Structures are given as structure tokens and as C-alpha cells.
Amino acid sequence: MAPSSTKSAYWKGVRDGTPFILVVSPFALLFGVVATEAGLNVFETMAFTIVVIAGAAQFTALQLMSENAPTIVVLASALAVNLRMAMYSASLTPYIGAAPMWQRAIAAYFTVDQAYALSIIEYENKPTLTVPERMAYFFGVITPVCPNWYFFTLVGAMVGQSIPPAFALDFAVPITFLAMIGPMLRTPAHMAAAAVSVTFAIGFAWVPYNLGLMIAGIGGMITGAQIELWTERRAQR
């Protein structure tokens, strides 16, 4: 594969991923602030964000830790929130599974929501892309996203509570996920899964330790899988 084609794919990924800086940066900043408010020091906050690199799971774990939830509940909830990463990996495997092991290992670590959402759309829209081009695009997407996640987490941890409440940084959380989920709602299964997840999340908000999120996630996955099964059966008929 010509270097120019992989280079072009890489820079397209960078361009597509760059707009997410606008929401990832305040999201990371908010996590740094929340982590220090929860009692973590700068080193612990950065170790947390580098090892886990999953914003939703990190916020979930922090909130439960602040509520003195049992350790097993904290771990189970964070893992449940991150179960989507297993689905992301399964979805990406047909496209990049033939890449060298070291590239797949790096991609596995950097499989964040933004990287998956943009990459899977690119792969589906351009089925003629080669594996090196797909990997180059994936790495291009994470180039503006992940370093900014680390950097602004550090800034938030160092600044801590000195950020005025008027800045309302928490807006970044819903905006980030809306920006990622919107383009993915392309089939009845996607829309049904999203609708059931939202409904269950609201309906089970009373469940202690945010376990309602686990119920919502499981309900959404079951619904999406069932709708896909019905759709396939109808198509076969």
C-alpha cells in the first residue's frame, strides 16, 4: 500500500476527530476537577484517566466512590458502563482484525467512543479501504482526541475547585455523547435500543448506586439484538 494513501487516510481521521476537541476538552477538565473534589490527588487522577481512559466509567466510579458504595459495586458498575467497548471491538474486528498485533493492541487501548463512532462510519461508507488505510484513519481520529483528554484532565486536576461554577463545564458530558450517538441511529434496532435505554435509565433512576444504568444498558442491548433478529427473519422471508 502506497504511503501516500495511508497518509491521506490518517489526516482525514485527524480532520474528522478535531471537532471533538470542543467537547472532549471540557469533559476531561470536568473529570479532573471532580476527581480532586472526590479526594484524589493529581497523580492518582492522572493514573486513573490513563489506565482507564473511559470517561463515562470514570465518572460512574467516582460518583459511587463519593457515595461510599461497596468496592464490588463500584467495579461492577464501571465494567457494566464499559461493556460497550466489547461490542465496539467485535464491530471493528471485521475491518481491522487483519492488522499487525501491535497495531491492534494500540487500537484496543485507544478504542474510545469518538474513535469507534467515526471509524465505523468511515469503514461502512468506504468498503474498499485497505486494512492499513483503516488503521491510519483510526489513529488519525485519536490524535486530536486522546492527548487532549490527558492534558485537560491534568489541567482540571491542578486547577481543582478554583474554576468558577458559572463556567458550567458539565454541559460537555451530554453534548459529547449526543454528538456521537446521533449519527449512529441509522436503523430501527439502533433507535429502539436508544429509546429503551433512555426509558429504563429514567425509570430506574431510583435504584441505589446508579445500578439503574446497568439495567438500562442490558435492556437496550437486548432490545437492539431482538429487533435485528426480527429484521433479519423478515428479510429472509
Give a verbal description of the structure.
The protein is mostly helical. The chain folds into 2 domains: 3-184, no CATH class; 185-237, no CATH class. The protein has 12 helices and no strands. Helix 2 (21-37) crosses helix 9 (131-159), helix 8 (113-125) runs antiparallel to helix 9 and helix 11 (188-203) runs antiparallel to helix 12. The longest helix has 29 residues, at 131-159. It holds the Pfam family AzlC. It is found in: Cell membrane. It is a multi-pass membrane protein. Keywords: Cell membrane, Membrane, Transmembrane, Transmembrane helix, Transport.
Radius of gyration: 19 Å
Strand content: under 5%
Number of domains: 2
Look at the structure and give the mean pLDDT. Answer: 83
Helix content: over 70%
Structural class by helix and strand composition: mainly alpha
Order of helices and strands: HHHHHHHHHHHH
Write down the overall geometry: globular
Please provide the count of β strands.
Answer: 0
Span from first to last CA?
42 Å
Number of alpha- plus pi-helical segments: 12
Poorly predicted ranges: none
Largest sheet: none
InterPro entries: Brnchd-chn_aa_trnsp_permease
Organism: Shimia litoralis
Keywords: Cell membrane, Membrane, Transmembrane, Transmembrane helix, Transport
Subcellular location: Cell membrane
